[in-house]
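Hi V.,

You were right to ask for the full record rather than a summary. Here it is.
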Amino acid sequence: PAEAGDSMADDIILLIPRVDDADDEEEPPSASAMDVTYDTSLPAQHTYLGDDMEDLTGRTVFEDDTVHTIPVLTSHDVILVPGQILPLQIFRPLEISMMHRIIENDRTFGIVGESALTASPKPLGTTAEIRSYKEEVDELSGIATLVVKAEGRQRFRILTSRTRSDGILLAGIKILPDKPAPDVGEVARLPSLDKLRLPSR
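Predicted structure:
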């Protein structure tokens, strides 16, 4: 009986496949499999607006410290800086009509935050120049939508403002001069290290 048991045990051992410990460990994914490549320029181009927009030529730049009257759009969640592209989809007929008049003239309007209007008697804003646009009409509802791509141009301060009977805000603005960005090294420099600096020749 002992021999039979030993033979049965040997048979069981032979029937169980031998598993190599190295096979239990999964190989980590290769670096190429983990890499995600995409075109970093696409977000700034706003290609989701479509490639059938009508481009406008020419640029409008106001002289520093000059005063102008321009229509202004207010927004609670948009802070426009010079050089930034601002995509807009406009549905209100009054604002669409306003944008058409802007396109026919100097293509410039203002962007001001709603909080800035209530916080300061002379709030700051940024001029925006329309670079391209297109108008779409929904076939079912007949509702028109104006798609605009504008670019932030110059900072301004509102001197006076009034709301027209159609609800459009007009503002008398003063163009502010550009402020050059400070040197990063100077901003991060510790004043306590001034004594270690070599005198300039």
